[in-house]
Amino acid sequence: MAESKKYKLTYFDMPARAEPHRLAFWIGKIDFEDERVEFKDWPKLKPTTPFGSLPLLTLPDGDIGNQGRAMARFIGKKTGLYPDDAVQAMHVDEILDTCEDLQSAVNSAGKGLEKAEKEKKRVEAVTTGKGALILKSIEAFIKKHGKEGHAVGEKLTIADLYLFSFMTMAVSGFFDGIPKDLLKDYPSIQAVRKTVATHPSVVERYKAEKSANPVFKVFAAVGGKPIV
To answer: Cα separation of 98 and 100, whole Å?
Structure first.
């Protein structure tokens, strides 16, 4: 494999699944290439990836990672955002896995239905259905295992970055039918979002964002106004 001088993170021009990784690099002050792929180019690129998915992480020596949570743990270890303690690490992993569960619940709700019916099913999923149960579980988990606006323990970890990214994406308007005030009854989740959004490196990251995608502005705004 051809060598690169720094890490390269490849994803689409949106936050979503790659945002925790971008934030970890920024917080850890690790220089990286933030490669953005256009959707029209994905069919050609997809067969060249190990598991047919994005995000994709190319290491300085040319080695490649292609599973989001494994990549997050790797970057977390490189940036001090993944615990050395085995129990704490387990709890961080639980948050990563549960965020993926929530996104699957949202994506599957109303799949294949017309827009109005799909939106109705999604609202049901996150207010009374499987998505709501996951949100309540995350809220209880943070109350038990987190402190001072952190999901696990009292220090920033990739669990916080995952919660910030996945929860903000959920209420960004990207998913049809998901109310923007969905998280108003989850104060512990909101506290984690605020902790991440107001971190100086995260504020710097969004000031530097040049994308025209409006979803990035939603992410940037989290740290600058009361969360509802």
So the answer is: 5
